[in-house]
Amino acid sequence: MSEFESIWSDLQGVPFSQGYLDAGGVRTRYLHAGDPGNPVVVFLHGSGGHAEAYVRNLEAHAEHFSTWSIDMLGHGYTDKPGYPLEVQHYVQHLIAVLDAIGVERAHLSGESLGGWVAARAAVDHPGRIDKLVLNTAGGSQADPEVMKRIITLSMAAAENPTWETVQARIKWLMADKSKGYDDIVASRQRVYRQPGFVAAMKDIMALQDPQIRARNLLGAAEYGSITAPTMVVWTSDDPTADVAEGRRIASMIPGARFELMPGCGHWPQYEDPKTFNRLHLDFLLGRHG
């Protein structure tokens, strides 16, 4: 049997806090590690996700940064506003989080939907963003098959959060399908069992609707206007888009660096935290790995 993976064992021995911020009236859950006086890095998870996507990255980053992983608007244990969520709503919430923690500027690192939101924030609020990391980021294209798959798996998990439906949604993210990801599954099952979560998931799925997605997509003009130093991280086995798409995104952002992580799916920060943390810290700290 492969070793049991536990969120708690990932955080054991790490001085961290879990709590809630008032971000412009939105009760927002966070995980935080590191000296609050240090520069800030904010991690943003993907569609239907939650702060635990980054449990394997808090300790390494806390050595250098005031490190935050939040439940984004309408996700996890953060308030559910009760309307279809578009990228601007997530960006407004993110900026409210920066205001709530009292920082003018932060590094942003987003995976999937989180990367889409981070990129849009860098377009709309250049003065608030230091460096930008787009990790298997969404928002550059509309692939009907992928969109359908996300809706099917996500709604099945929210409408009937059994072990099997939630595990299917988690395994879809990962390159290694042989593991059970039990603790991540248990955490997400608890999230999805909250009263009213089916309606919340429908609001999250708005960006998988072709018409809504079309008006939120980022193109050459948006990516080309990003002034923050940017690293695009892609993987060999990303289920949402191939390596060529990752390279295309990087090619549109002035001066962007591109890094490919082999043997990972949609969550390289979890599947290969050692490589991810090294690449990430080298980039944020300006070290040349």
UniProtKB/TrEMBL annotation:
One Pfam family from the record: Abhydrolase_6
InterPro entries found in the cross-reference section: AB_hydrolase_1 (IPR000073), AB_hydrolase_fold (IPR029058), AB_hydrolase_sf (IPR050266)
Domain AB hydrolase-1: 41-278
GO cellular component terms, A-Z: membrane
UniProt keyword annotation of Iron present: no
Molecular function GO terms recorded: hydrolase activity
Keywords for this protein: Hydrolase
PANTHER family documented for this protein: HYDROLASE, PUTATIVE (AFU_ORTHOLOGUE AFUA_2G14860)-RELATED (PTHR43798:SF33), MONOACYLGLYCEROL LIPASE (PTHR43798)
Record protein name field: 2-hydroxy-6-ketonona-2,4-dienedioic acid hydrolase
